[in-house]
Amino acid sequence: MNKIDLIIVDYKNMKEEDIPSLSFLSKEDLSSISKIKLEKVKVEKAISTAIKNKYIKDYYLSNKGKPLSKNIYFNISHSGSKLVLALNKSYPVGVDIEEIKENKIDLKDKVYSELEKQYVKDYKSFLEIWTNKESLIKCIGESIFKDIKSITSLPINGRKIYEDEIYFSKTIEIDNYILSVTIKYSDEFDLNIINIFPSSL
Fold first, then answer.
1. Which 8-state DSSP code applies to residue 91?
2. 182 and 96 in contact (C-beta within 8 Å)?
3. Residue 74: Cβ-neighbour burial (10 angstroms; 0-12, 13-18, 19+)
4. Upstream peptide bond of 155 is cis (omega within 30 degrees of 0)
5. What pLDDT does 86 receive?
6. pLDDT at 105 over 80
């Protein structure tokens, strides 16, 4: 069965002064990060760069600024104090993670289709729809200049078709987060979840 690796880092207690201890950051990385003003954004950038350097190594930026690799498909998302890196050797993948925190369920009428609105019962189910939409968009890998209501999210777990292409999605709850993964692949896949600490970067 196809497998997606999910590398999850929780950097809740990490501070700006801890950044130089990340061994997978180069001098150039540290210099670039030092120019960022907000500590939270500095830490997020440091973790994101370090995890790509450790697990991707050969990534580069497209002309649209999207990180790519010739050897593996990957995608990154972060929310709250968690960052997730999704990896697959064979097929494009997209991931989105959202903390179950600020309730934005009132947005459902603006961004969800009628079927999706029927699915939403609480903020958790609202995020299941939202992360599915985001993970599909990120799997496609291009900007989508359409009404977000048209971006398919259902079924939450299973096969879906968008513009004649087949995708497969899974949604899980981890701690106080909702996480969705979408792959451009027509069948079931396994999730291999690997939790790591910033100190291992």
1. S
2. no
3. buried
4. yes
5. 98
6. no
Q: For residues 167 and 182, is the Cβ–Cβ distance under 8 A?
A: yes
What's the rounded Cα separation, in Å, for the pair 174 and 165?
29
Tokens standing for residue 160: 């879906």
Quote the tokens at residue 77.
Answer: 């998302």
Token reading at 30:
């540290």
CA distances to 1, 101, 117, 125, 129 from 111, rounded to whole Å, are: 34, 19, 9, 14, 10
How many whole angstroms separate alpha carbon 192 and alpha carbon 107?
Answer: 32
HEC string of 39-53 equals HHHHHHHHHHHHHHH
Strand order, beta sheet including 158-162: 93-99, 177-183, 165-174, 158-162
| pLDDT tens track for 16-64 | 999 999 999 999 999 999 999 999 999 999 999 999 999 997 888 777 6
Q: How far apart are the first and last CA of the chain?
A: 29
Instruction: Give the integer Cα–Cα distance in Å for 51 and 17.
Output: 18
- Rounded Cα distance between 197 and 10, Å, is 6
Kindly report, residue by residue over 155-194, the tens digit of the pLDDT.
999 999 998 999 999 999 999 999 999 999 988 899 999 9
Q: Which two tokens stand for residue 73?
A: 């498909």
Predicted pLDDT of residue 144: 62
